[in-house]
Amino acid sequence: MLAHLILAGSSLVAPQHLGVERPPLASARRIVLTHAGVAGSANARTIDQARDLARELGNRVRAGTDFARLAAEFSSGPEARTGGELGTFVPGVLAPEIDAFLFSAKDGGVSEPLELAAGWCILQRVPTHAAVLRIQLTGDGERRAQRAQSVEARLRAGEDFALVAKELSDDAASAARGGQYAIFERGANDTLLKRMTFEAEIGSTFGPVDLPPFGLNWMRRVPLEAVDPALREDQFVRLSAILFPFDSAVGADPRTTPSEVAAKVVADSVLRALDAGSDFAKLAREHTGDPGGRELGGDLGWIHRASPNLLDAVRNACLLAPGAHTVVQRAPAGWAILKRDA
Question: 79 in helix, strand or coil?
Fold first, then answer.
């Protein structure tokens, strides 16, 4: 399933996804059960009791009990307050046993108990994307109240949501598309409308939700194919980098690596060349000290913006416009210049 990915190594990004296509995504919820054997745990249950409870909860979810409710009641993880939501991940970010489950399970699938450093846990794979139509009413006062009554009446009467959106929504862009608003990507800390969308069944309508200053919103979750793919949230960027290690940087050999000042002088000279229009990949092949970077022309591969533990220098580069490069930035492995390729 993952054979099309090329996983390499870099001092700036790990793992690397260097394939032409974006890597696959998987989303999960979890319940973590600590025990007396976990460092810092105040829970008196034994490791066997934690494992047995994890197995029981997994069976309850498979029998139809709401996972989010059980997470809020039992989980010791910080995500318990959001129903166990872990978020969305590319391969290689989470523990291998979690990856093995996530990227083989179907949506709704529940894992067997997994033993991790934090305790025993169970996972549920959940849909990564959700498509929605929207009706939005802006403004306030009596006029908005009257229009809201009209929206409610027409929806209750069974009128087509897309037609009502086209005729009444104040969001001109989505109204012109028959209410097509977005294909959301699941996150660990989603905003209210996104959370409500993922909680809704396909074909169901919810609202009105008042979100000042954005007005009243009615949303209808629809199949992914019912919304233009161009409206899909895309958290991926493709980056390249030139790394200039120095003697006190992480992983550097002080006997063979230049001083911090000397490395900065070289980095500044390369930045001037880039600003003057020199080719980034060519300079990377000449200068970068990132493992494998010379052969790849500095290519770091596809980066998912929501991946945990991204370096600040990488997060900064994710905000660039395609084709732009950063200034010289300090990273644990040395000075770095990054470029957004896509």
Answer: helix
Greatest Cα pair distance, the chain, in angstroms, is 78
Give a yes or no: residue 13 inside a domain. no
pLDDT higher than 70, residue 2: no
Give Cβ neighbours of residue 192 (< 8 Å, ≥ 6 apart).
209, 211
- What are the residue ranges of helices labelled H in the chain? 47-62, 67-74, 96-102, 141-156, 161-168, 172-176, 192-199, 260-275, 280-287, 293-296, 312-318
Q: What is the pLDDT of residues 243-282, one digit of tens each?
A: 999 999 999 999 999 999 999 999 999 999 999 999 999 9
Tell whether omega for the bond before 15 is within 30 degrees of 0, i.e. cis: yes
Which strand ranges, in their side-by-side order, compose the sheet holding 114-116? 85-89, 26-33, 119-126, 114-116
What CATH number is attached to the domain comprising 216?
A: 3.10.50.40
The two structure tokens encoding residue 212: 């000042």
Q: Are residues 35 and 113 in the same domain?
A: yes
Which residues constitute the domain of residue 320?
Answer: 236-340
Tokens of 303: 């980066």
pTM exceeding 0.70: yes
Comparing CA positions, the residue from 130, 198, 189 lying closest to residue 308 is 189
Considering 188, 216, 231, which residue would you say is the last residue of a domain? Answer: 231
pLDDT of residue 6: 44
Q: Give the whole-angstrom CA distance, residue 205 versus residue 29.
A: 24
First to last CA, the chain: 24
How confident is the model at residue 224, as a pLDDT? 98
Domain count, the chain: 3
Dist. CA 157–CA 164, nearest whole Å: 11
Question: Structure tokens of 131?
Answer: 């498509």
Chain position carrying tokens 């770095």: 336
Q: Which two tokens stand for residue 157?
A: 């009467």
Helix, strand, coil percent content, the chain, rounded in steps of 5: 35, 25, 45
CA 134 to chain CA centroid, nearest Å: 23
CA-CA-CA-CA torsion sign (301, 305, 310, 314): positive
Does 101 reside within a domain? Answer: yes
Q: What is the mean pLDDT of residues 188-204?
A: 93
